[in-house]
């Protein structure tokens, strides 16, 4: 377990809704090995996003253990969690959340400069990632000038810009048509594998999940 990029034990999360307690996660045990791409499969409302928020250190209120690269999240203060998110994790969401006033390259440069990279090196890294994703001709285009698939490719490049150990993706192609989703997912998986990162990718699509290294199924708050 110490060699895992991600390891959770007994991870649970419940919410109060009036007089009722809703248990979203019920003791999830999950490990992701270095370089492994894991599909987190489950229908909408099964708790996939809640699990990703937990392991992404984006939300509190969880019970159980979360270890990222051997570091116990419960022992981290707010600054420590920020450092882990910045240095070890990359995030891709269903909606790209790109900065509208920045072009494709700048959207990928910015997280690197926050991380401390020199601008020239950050720009070279951004251009390389975007070109690998087929956007070499769109480097100076703003999000409004890009198609949905192109915007999501920029989001993928941004997530990998700082060479994270683990990429967390929440329905990363859920907002795309089937043909575009297939292309973007293929490029996403190819780039993640090429970078040597691990990934935990939430999806409700069985067909897409089967293209990953391993599939875990979330059902009624537990992994099947």
TrEMBL record:
<keyword id="KW-0472">Membrane</keyword>
<keyword id="KW-0449">Lipoprotein</keyword>
<dbReference type="InterPro" id="IPR015854">
    <property type="entry name" value="ABC_transpr_LolD-like"/>
</dbReference>
<dbReference type="InterPro" id="IPR017871">
    <property type="entry name" value="ABC_transporter-like_CS"/>
</dbReference>
<dbReference type="GO" id="GO:0044874">
    <property type="term" value="P:lipoprotein localization to outer membrane"/>
</dbReference>
<dbReference type="GO" id="GO:0016887">
    <property type="term" value="F:ATP hydrolysis activity"/>
</dbReference>
<dbReference type="InterPro" id="IPR003439">
    <property type="entry name" value="ABC_transporter-like_ATP-bd"/>
</dbReference>
<dbReference type="InterPro" id="IPR003593">
    <property type="entry name" value="AAA+_ATPase"/>
</dbReference>
<dbReference type="InterPro" id="IPR027417">
    <property type="entry name" value="P-loop_NTPase"/>
</dbReference>
<feature type="domain" description="ABC transporter">
    <location>
        <begin position="6"/>
        <end position="224"/>
    </location>
</feature>
<dbReference type="GO" id="GO:0005886">
    <property type="term" value="C:plasma membrane"/>
</dbReference>
<protein>
    <submittedName>
        <fullName>Lipoprotein-releasing system ATP-binding protein</fullName>
        <ecNumber>3.6.3.-</ecNumber>
    </submittedName>
</protein>
<keyword id="KW-0997">Cell inner membrane</keyword>
<dbReference type="GO" id="GO:0005524">
    <property type="term" value="F:ATP binding"/>
</dbReference>
<keyword id="KW-1003">Cell membrane</keyword>
<dbReference type="GO" id="GO:0089705">
    <property type="term" value="P:protein localization to outer membrane"/>
</dbReference>
<keyword id="KW-0547">Nucleotide-binding</keyword>
<dbReference type="GO" id="GO:0098796">
    <property type="term" value="C:membrane protein complex"/>
</dbReference>
<keyword id="KW-0067">ATP-binding</keyword>
<keyword id="KW-0378">Hydrolase</keyword>
<dbReference type="GO" id="GO:0022857">
    <property type="term" value="F:transmembrane transporter activity"/>
</dbReference>
<dbReference type="Pfam" id="PF00005">
    <property type="entry name" value="ABC_tran"/>
</dbReference>
<comment type="similarity">
    <text>Belongs to the ABC transporter superfamily. Macrolide exporter (TC 3.A.1.122) family.</text>
</comment>
<keyword id="KW-0813">Transport</keyword>
<dbReference type="InterPro" id="IPR017911">
    <property type="entry name" value="MacB-like_ATP-bd"/>
</dbReference>
């Amino acid at each position: 377990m110490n060699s895992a990029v991600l390891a959770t034990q007994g991870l649970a999360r419940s919410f109060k809704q009036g007089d009722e307690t809703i248990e979203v996660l019920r003791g999830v045990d999950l490990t992701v090995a270095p370089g492994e791409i894991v599909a987190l499969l489950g229908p909408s409302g099964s708790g996939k996003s809640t699990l990703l928020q937990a392991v992404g250190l984006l939300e509190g209120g969880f019970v159980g253990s979360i270890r990222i690269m051997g570091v116990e999240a419960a022992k981290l203060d707010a600054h420590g969690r920020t450092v882990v998110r910045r240095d070890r994790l990359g995030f891709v969401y269903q909606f790209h959340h790109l900065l509208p006033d920045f072009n494709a390259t700048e959207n990928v440069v910015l997280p690197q400069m926050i991380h401390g990279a020199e601008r020239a090196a950050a720009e070279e890294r951004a251009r390389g990632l975007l070109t690998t994703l087929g956007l070499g001709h769109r480097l100076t285009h703003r999000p409004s000038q890009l198609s949905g698939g192109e915007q999501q490719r920029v989001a993928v490049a941004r997530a990998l810009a700082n060479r994270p150990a683990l990429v967390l993706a929440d329905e990363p192609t859920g907002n795309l048509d089937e043909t575009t989703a297939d292309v973007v997912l293929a490029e996403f998986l190819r780039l993640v594998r090429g970078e040597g990162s691990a990934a935990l990718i939430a999806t409700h699509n069985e067909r897409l999940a089967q293209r990953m290294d391993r599939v875990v199924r979330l059902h009624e708050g537990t992994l099947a």
